[in-house]
Design goal:
18 helices
Length: 291
């Protein structure tokens, strides 16, 4: 089945409105007239990458003729660009495996593939990464949520950890954060108001002592609160791991591929994953009957 909804009767109606024969439509999209007949009768379906060409040949808006539900995933982006898996793989100089794995939620794209694939699909890198999240079962509602998955400033990182890092524990208040920072780095002497200013973006700079104290308060590596300008792959992957854990707890993950960082997840985080997966396991249909 193509990633978009396909109704052969709608294709037949649109074709007849334009006095176009099945063979003519087939010639435009590179198939036989008999193949078009099977599509229209519901006996077969076109490949997803054929849908843009069909809609264009019938002079119909793609979204009207072949609607889709929910936000786009990687397969939809590829098909809407009119590319097969093999053709998409050619754009990144690789075999079909990385593209297929990413679309099926088995293995994420290598960072070096993101830019050329985004260009081939006619989308931004952020849009491609957001679609990849959807392929892996994560359901952020907009590009704003995807941006939140890669915070850069101190305040963005604090807000990110408050949202995704608690994993069922009580969320820290600004006063709690200030107290923990001061306990770890007494020379920092921050107040709850200082933390509020950081979170709201009124202040964007902080001393190394404050950064270290924040890492202590949230029980994350000190390098997570390092340079704001660049997110290296280690930081991105660690943030992604935190986001996955938080998304499990919030019920936003439909499928989860195991991932880890080069330094590994903490014992507390691993315990959180195991506890939450255990809780969710007994809520899945059919699990109790199978035991």
């Amino acid at each position: 089945m193509p990633p978009r909804q396909f109704d052969g009767s709608l294709v037949r109606a649109a074709r007849r409105r334009r006095d176009m024969h099945q063979r003519e439509l087939g010639d435009v999209v590179g198939v036989s007239g008999a193949t078009v007949a099977r599509w229209e009768s519901g006996k077969d379906f076109p490949k997803g990458e054929k849908l843009p060409a069909i809609a264009a040949a019938l002079d119909e808006p793609l979204n009207d003729l072949f609607p889709h539900e929910g936000p786009p995933d990687l397969q939809l982006l590829r098909c809407d660009a009119g590319l097969s898996v093999a053709e998409a793989a050619e754009t990144i100089g690789a075999s079909r495996v990385p593209v297929s794995n990413a679309e099926s939620g088995r293995r994420r794209l290598n960072d070096s593939y993101v830019q050329p694939l985004a260009a081939a699909y006619g989308v931004t890198e952020d849009e491609l990464l957001l679609a990849q999240d959807h392929s892996f079962g994560v359901r952020p509602t907009s590009l704003d949520d995807e941006q939140e998955a890669a915070p850069r400033t101190i305040g963005e990182k604090i807000n990110f950890l408050l949202r995704y890092g608690s994993a069922g524990q009580e969320t820290l208040s600004d006063a709690d954060i200030a107290r923990l920072v001061n306990e770890y780095a007494p020379a920092a002497a921050v107040t709850a108001g200082d933390i509020t200013d950081l979170r709201e973006g009124a202040v964007t700079e902080a001393s190394d002592e404050v950064r270290a104290g924040l890492a202590h308060a949230f029980q994350v590596p000190a390098w997570l609160f390092g340079d704001d300008a660049e997110l290296n792959p280690l930081v991105r992957e660690f943030l992604e791991a935190i986001r996955f854990i938080g998304s499990i707890h919030q019920g936003q993950v439909l499928g989860l591929a195991a991932r880890g960082t080069s330094e590994g997840l903490s014992v507390e985080m691993m315990a959180g994953i195991n506890r939450l997966v255990g809780e969710l396991r007994h809520k899945l249909p059919g699990v109790q009957d199978a035991e």
